[in-house]
Amino acid sequence: MADVVDLICYPVKGCAGTSVNDALLTPAGLAHDRSFMVISEDGTFRTQRRHPRLALIRPAVSADGSRLTLDAADGTGRFGTLCLDVTTTAPRRDVDLFGTHFQGIDHGDEAATWLSEFLGTPSRLVRVPPEHDRIADGLTPGPSGYADSSAVHLLSRASLALLNQRMAERGAPILPMNRFRPNIVVDGHGGHDHDGVDWAAPPHGEDRARRITIGDAELGFAKLAVRCAVTLVEQEAGARRGPEPLRTLASYRRAAGGGVVFGAKFSVVTPGKLSVGDEAVVREWGDAGL
């Protein structure tokens, strides 16, 4: 067995996450997760790969989803707070996410000015429209908002512990979980699943989980999470820091299809409520695929 030990929502793609004790798991992931996105003037999404200062923006969405607050601070002190009414009726504009074209609801010039000043480059804010019909690929395809791919990213503490052990052996500093920006963090609690496996205790048990139930919700495995340069960004500083963890991951987590992998992506099979402390039970297993 495994327990959910953290739930993290990222309302604005690329910006800071917020840990919550309870969350509604919708068909497209945790409620409000990656439902907003910062874009360039031509509609291309902005990412920490090129704009690490996004990590310093802390978004919050009201319980009913009607208000979005952006708060930011940098090394020179507090930048400021912006409060916006969330709309689904404002004009749509074309947006580009990894070369695929979607629509976004533009949230106005005030948000654009605030973001442009903080990031130092012309930017605008868009929201996923109600008619958004993106289906992310993978072993279990499923709806997704503005996430890189599938709706839910799950990672175990044991996987991070092994990475940090290997990094320490190389003389590299250990890293916090937020470098990897998961939605669900699980940890083994010493019990056993239906086939006798405490699945989150050994590292990378999430690689083999094909169906997971948490409360009355169910997740279906989509793919392993291929890691990119976002993992090089120190989230608290909003700045890139050296070659880790990609250098160490490349020494033992190279995928057969290319890239290095860490954690797993899931689609939502059955929506429901999630809470920290819920048991995450694997109902179906598969091969790790490395």
Topology:
Layout: E1 2-9, E2 12-13, E3 18-20, E4 22-26, E5 29-30, E6 36-39, E7 57-61, E8 67-74, E9 77-85, E10 92-97, E11 100-106, H1 108-119, E12 124-127, E13 135-136, E14 142-143, E15 152-156, H2 157-169, E16 184-188, E17 209-214, E18 217-226, E19 233-234, E20 239-240, H3 246-249, E21 261-270, E22 272-275, E23 279-285
Parallel strand pairs: 2-6, 15-16
Antiparallel strand pairs: 1-3, 1-16, 1-23, 4-5, 4-22, 6-12, 7-8, 8-9, 10-11, 11-12, 13-14, 15-21, 17-18, 17-23, 18-21, 19-20
Characterization of the model:
The chain has 290 residues and is mostly beta strands. The chain has helices at residues 108-119, 157-169, 246-249, and strands spanning 2-9, 12-13, 18-20, 22-26, 29-30, 36-39, 57-61, 67-74, 77-85, 92-97, 100-106, 124-127, 135-136, 142-143, 152-156, 184-188, 209-214, 217-226, 233-234, 239-240, 261-270, 272-275, 279-285. The strands form six sheets. The protein has a seven-stranded mixed β-barrel. It is globular and about 50 Å long. The mean pLDDT is 94.
Give the tally of β-strands: 23
Helix content: 10-25%
Q: Please report which band the strand proportion falls in: under 5%, 5-15%, 15-25%, 25-35%, 35-45% or over 45%.
A: 35-45%
- Counting H and I runs of at least 4 residues, what is the number of helices? 3
Question: Termini, distance in Å?
Answer: 23 Å
Instruction: Give a short account of the largest sheet.
Output: 7 strands, mixed, barrel
How is the largest sheet built, in terms of strand order? 1-16-15-21-18-17-23
Q: Specify the overall morphology.
A: globular
Low-confidence stretches: none
Decide which structural class fits the backbone.
mainly beta
The helix/strand series, from N terminus to C terminus, equals EEEEEEEEEEEHEEEEHEEEEEHEEE
Q: State the oligomer.
A: single chain
The residue-averaged pLDDT reads 94
